[in-house]
């Protein structure tokens, strides 16, 4: 065994030199050399409309002979020059710049009479752009097949997921190890990253020769040998004993189900060790390492050399997202949208896909570009019919293609006339290296790629990854992701409620409901269970014209509602309530309201009429009658003085008197939940629950009057305004609250109050997300730990952002756009994480809401002595209506928590306005004989 090799320095820990490609020994794995070409551009993703500018960097290993000279540039229209155009632009063996083309002319024609046999042979090897375009399309088809769940197993281009979802971002830090299994040796690497943007990675490596008989021995012997290499290497470099993540480069076809989980499908390249196929090779290596008591070495990832190439070119500037390797064979990998990789559940972000494209064409897809020479090469190979694409591209074969071409020309007497050509009969007479020296590969690759994918601008970055820094970077990224995932999980864990948590919330809600209904316990209950004196839902016979007021939502509105046989007609006007009025005196507030009513009546020509008025007043009130409601407390940003403890209907009447506005007849004051229930009840008689999830949250339902201890009378039912937003104000939900919830609560004008509401409703969800994001930045989990001043601004992260960010199929670029408006420079991973945070917060909100509703429907079912209850919930609120998943999450969880209730949800159209009028109408129906 040789001693540890350190570019340009002696093996001592202190004297470790920064990584440099100097001083390499010649014997590195064969993969990092040779030739290659062919690329594809990224197609604009359908999920990302408007993303015309497809810029990508491609790492290329090696250089190549290629079959095309410099091509004419792209034509102005961005389309490919036709076969004829190519012919006319270079008519007689000269290109635009007058260079001799020989017969390396773009596009071949088989029967040009003046062609020499040599020209004809070369034209055979020079497919037209149209043909290449067709090959590109077939490659895309094959790639799609590989990505699709149904066709993945049969695909020629397997598109194997690598579970690498990220490129280096420069924050990677610490010591790590890589061990690479190669044809005849094992290479070990030790890398130290300083978290300095990967400016100066420090690297040591050593190559251990492998006994030749090992390839056909037992799997145990092989893995023991690899573990011993690790042991020896660590000993020699005096590695410390702290946890050391290890990446395992294992260049065989594996079924990977996680970063650190991969079953060997089958050996190749001369390996045939027993008892490995079908087993998890990560586990096998870890077991062998553990046998040597190297417990601090943890195999965290199985890697592919292609991914290493991509990573090695991925720092400094923008990330490199495609790699092209053409060693003896050829392969590529690229970052694909995760949702396209159907064999993996993950649908967020991107994942590196190892195309394994060497087998492209094994199903005949390359039929029309294969030449007689390709067929000869294939037939003489050890695996005829297989890896057809590789055999046209890989370095192992290029020399052979040339040999067969020359041989056939010699046989036709077109070359070497009179000379002995017996030397051409021997396999490998031409070295690929000799072929390579003829052409400038990179330039040709770039220009043909440009012609075939004019929508994409690709930068080719030759990879100089001769010492394995790339795979080390993959390991570093894997390590960073593992650590980050762990920290993210820790941070979000308190926000993820278990089924048991939700059952407990449901039980607590039930308990608080009972307490709120009880005459003696009412005062101590956090859920107030306020009687509304609404005892009937609409029956459809209600008629008449009504005025309605809606105060306590986002807007203050005045409406006129006509309830007629044909349906309900409404006209309304929105009025602003300035914050100074919301938080000024009660007199000013109610004066303002009366002025708005008068303005509305003038505009609607209603000054002469005295219409019954329903007042939707969406704050907690102790109702003493249908038209008598004592304000218990302000919520939702209101704090007008002199109102709490007063009958708001009287305050309104007083203001009308001050304004000498006599034509005001208030018949009912209702809560918006009640309005919503009534409005939906007009269309669906089963609607006996009202739910609001907007700025705040609340619910009401029809309770048996005999259960309402706070009101006299036992007959029939009464609608109870639960005021469930305050659930938990007595401390019963304290263990559900997270530090983020407490931070949000502390900054509100009603700290400690409306605790349930602050977990659920629109006024708070954005704030919760903002606090979580701040914590993540603080822990360096987001935005590379770079703080944003704007993100520190209260309420800057609106609840509408949750809806947008969580929209299915929304391209991550759009998430980045939202974050950019907050002066946050978000990477793709950042966007994925922000989305996860939003999902976690909105899911919790929906599930808590479901737990509350479950308590309500179960109580109603029991009240009525039913085994099954079918009931409808009338719902209002922009969060419920606009969030892409809230309603579904709510309904799913409710079904789960209350399986004996079939609950239908009916969205209310303007419940507050219509509902207030209907309460007034129902009241008039009852009082009129
Ligand atoms: P209110 O509850 O005040 O009567 P809404 O039902 O319209 O009014 O709710 C308004 C609240 O809904 C806003 O404060 C905001 O938090 C939230 N919201 C507004 N738009 C959206 C949206 N697109 N997605 C989620 N929440 C939203
Ligand atoms: Mg509302």
Would you summarize the structure shown here?
By secondary structure, the chain is an alpha/beta fold.
Topology, please?
Elements: E1 54-61, H1 83-89, H2 117-124, H3 129-147, E2 160-161, E3 173-181, E4 185-194, E5 202-209, H4 219-237, E6 244-249, E7 253-258, E8 261-266, H5 281-291, E9 297-303, H6 305-312, E10 322-326, E11 330-337, E12 350-354, H7 372-380, H8 388-393, H9 395-411, H10 432-436, H11 441-452, E13 456-462, H12 469-492, H13 499-517, E14 530-531, E15 544-551, E16 556-564, E17 567-575, H14 579-582, H15 586-603, E18 612-617, E19 621-625, E20 628-631, H16 648-658, E21 665-670, H17 672-683, E22 687-693, E23 697-704, E24 717-721, H18 739-746, H19 757-760, H20 762-778, H21 799-806, H22 812-821, H23 828-863, E25 869-876, H24 878-882, H25 886-897, E26 901-907, H26 911-927
Parallel strand pairs: 1-10, 1-13, 3-6, 6-9, 15-18, 18-21, 22-25, 25-26
Antiparallel strand pairs: 2-12, 3-4, 4-5, 7-8, 10-11, 11-12, 14-24, 15-16, 16-17, 19-20, 22-23, 23-24
Helix pairs in contact: 4-5, 6-12, 7-9, 13-23, 15-16, 17-26, 18-20, 20-21, 20-23, 22-23, 23-25
The protein binds adenosine-5'-diphosphate and magnesium ion.
Residues 553-554, 694-695, 762-763, 799-800, 803, 877-879, 882-883 line the site of adenosine-5'-diphosphate.
Q: Would you write up a description of this structure?
A:
Pathway: Carbohydrate metabolism; hexose metabolism; Carbohydrate degradation; glycolysis; D-glyceraldehyde 3-phosphate and glycerone phosphate from D-glucose: step 1/4. InterPro entries: ATPase_NBD (IPR043129), Hexokinase (IPR001312), Hexokinase_BS (IPR019807), Hexokinase_C (IPR022673), Hexokinase_N (IPR022672). There is one protein chain. With 929 residues, the chain is an alpha/beta fold. The model is unreliable at 1-56 and 62-110 (pLDDT under 50). A hairpin with a 2-residue loop joins strand 19 and strand 20 (628-631). The longest helix has 36 residues, at 828-863. The chain contains 26 helices and 26 strands. Adenosine-5'-diphosphate binds next to helix 20, helix 21 and helix 24.
